[in-house]
Specification:
- The protein is α+β, with helices and mostly antiparallel strands.
- It has one domain.
- 27% of the residues lie in helices and 14% in strands.
- The chain is built from one helix and two strands, in the order ββα.
């Protein structure tokens, strides 16, 4: 495996099956999308991360 590869099921519609490298949507690696998702998750769950680093 290489850095950045995504592993998912190889079966019908990617729902079941043995693991294999699969296509990764560009939004899945977008830092701004990740930041917004993290902030929304914190707000909705009330859980807070103790991570000091910022999304880059």
């Amino acid at each position: 495996m290489e850095s950045g590869q995504f592993i998912g099921p190889d079966g019908m519609a990617g729902l079941l099956g043995a693991p294999k490298p699969v296509w990764l949507a560009p939004a899945a690696t977008d830092a701004e999308t990740g930041r917004r998702l993290w902030e929304l998750s914190e707000r909705l769950t009330g859980a807070r991360s103790n991570r000091q680093e910022k999304f880059s």
